Write a sequence for this structure.
């Protein structure tokens, strides 16, 4: 991508409405623009990151046998009247009346919609278990939308729904999603800690939230210090096998969100207690027959008798993750992306645009990188070197190949690593091979 032709409206000044780093940086880096309170447009840079996160989430859902669907954003009210949630949901639900005076709503979640699809399509226990998911915009008229995309009114969620014949099988689906979530967050460069949680308006008797630790999360959490080192790195994961030992390992130690904290348990931890702020990036629920029973989602069992299916739902805050990742990985100059979701892998900075030799050398490097299949951003704007360096750091270009007349004369380029801040002069070949490491 040539920066001279890209749409990257960066801001020099810090917008006053942004209270936390990720919101400030997303506005300054030209990733989003506010449309109305808690509702954002995604500009090219922001959308690139959102799509990369979405794809990792999708790959991990597909890898454990979930099937992708796409349900509408607008749902008929009578679906929610059937489940009994239409009145319960309250003012967070955006209610709409169509031209025929039919009550509709902008979906805050999709338990009802998916249960209806299931009920009209699956009739035998032989077709179970089944997990369906979609990645779709939701609307919740939050009382206090804040922190940019972190608590929006409109936001992108991956929501999955499991259908099983009995509680034991439902527990297996839950465990599968639990471990798949840990894997997804690790791929996104995050440490997410599962914590037993309240079920709120979704309902059910078992639920875990996944939180990442940051300086400015909404929840004040506490956990055992062992969680800081825990990962799936040495686990031999077989998603068709028994995942209970892994789930047990991640749930046997103390970890609690603010509403679930237990002072006695925390006292007992002594030096092993860690308190921090956290951002909820996922939430999973097992709610048995709460929706299947009132909505008639039953299948014929082995003896021919009807059985209400056991269900669970599993959410990941895809748009919230963009803010959460920036919150956990930035410095005073800008964003430091985890490799897996960086909008660009490498940048080329031409220090003397309109100098024929510099232009030719930088164009060649740009072409070589494109041929290697890299996501490249090429700063070919006629601007001061300082402004170019500042923008590259602000948007978080992980490797920056910098070239001007002096380097050209000496046969070297400068290579900067965004994460470490290290800069070194080396041959172009060495620089290119480093960016591929
Ligand atoms: N139906 C269930 C699971 S599919 C559900 O809706 N769960 S939830 O309410 O916990 O939302 C799932 C995830 O969406 C949350 O963990 C959070 O990461 C994200 N999320 C929820 N509300 C917002 C919001 N207002 N802004 C941004 N992300 C949100």
């Amino acid at each position: 991508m040539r920066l001279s032709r890209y749409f990257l409206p960066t801001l020099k000044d810090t917008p006053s409405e942004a209270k936390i780093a990720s919101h400030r940086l997303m506005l300054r880096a030209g990733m989003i623009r506010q449309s109305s309170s808690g509702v954002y447009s995604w500009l090219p840079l922001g959308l690139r990151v959102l799509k990369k996160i979405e794809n990792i989430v999708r790959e991990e859902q597909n890898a454990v046998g979930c099937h992708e669907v796409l349900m509408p954003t607008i749902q008929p009210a009578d679906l929610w009247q059937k489940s009994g949630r239409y009145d319960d949901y309250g003012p967070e639900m955006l209610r709409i009346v169509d031209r025929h005076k039919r009550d509709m709503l902008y979906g805050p979640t999709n338990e009802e919609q998916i249960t209806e699809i299931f009920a009209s399509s699956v009739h035998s226990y032989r077709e179970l278990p089944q997990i369906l998911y979609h990645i779709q915009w939701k609307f919740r008229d939050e009382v206090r939308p804040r922190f940019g995309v972190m608590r929006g009114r409109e936001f992108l969620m991956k929501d999955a729904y499991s259908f099983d014949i009995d509680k034991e099988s439902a527990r297996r689906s839950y465990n599968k999603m639990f471990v798949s979530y840990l894997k997804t967050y690790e791929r996104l460069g995050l440490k997410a800690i599962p914590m037993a949680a309240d079920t709120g308006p979704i309902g059910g008797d078992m639920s875990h939230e996944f939180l990442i630790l940051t300086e400015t999360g909404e929840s004040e959490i506490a956990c055992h210090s062992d969680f800081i080192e825990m990962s799936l790195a040495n686990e031999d994961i077989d998603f068709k096998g028994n995942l209970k030992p892994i789930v047990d390992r991640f749930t046997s130690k103390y970890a609690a969100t603010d509403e679930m904290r237990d002072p006695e348990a925390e006292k007992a931890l002594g030096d092993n207690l860690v308190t921090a702020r956290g951002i909820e990036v996922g939430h999973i629920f097992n709610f048995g027959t709460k929706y299947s029973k009132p909505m008639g989602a039953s299948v014929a069992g082995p003896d021919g008798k009807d059985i209400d299916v056991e269900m669970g739902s599993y959410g990941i805050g895809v748009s919230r993750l963009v803010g959460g990742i920036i919150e956990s990985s930035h410095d005073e100059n800008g964003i430091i992306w985890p490799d897996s979701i960086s909008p660009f892998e490498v940048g080329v900075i031409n220090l003397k645009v309109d100098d024929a030799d510099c232009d030719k050398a930088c164009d060649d490097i740009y072409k070589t990188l494109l041929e290697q299949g890299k996501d490249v951003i090429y700063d070919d704007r006629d601007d001061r070197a300082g402004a170019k360096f500042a923008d590259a750091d602000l948007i978080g270009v992980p490797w920056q190949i910098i070239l001007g007349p002096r380097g050209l004369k000496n046969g070297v380029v400068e290579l900067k690593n965004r994460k470490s801040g290290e800069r070194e002069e080396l041959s172009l070949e060495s620089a290119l091979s480093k960016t591929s490491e």
Summary: Residues 109, 111, 140, 142, 151-152, 155, 157, 159, 202, 280-283, 285, 313-315, 317, 319-320 surround 5CA (CB under 6 Å). The chain has two domains: 11-335, 344-435.
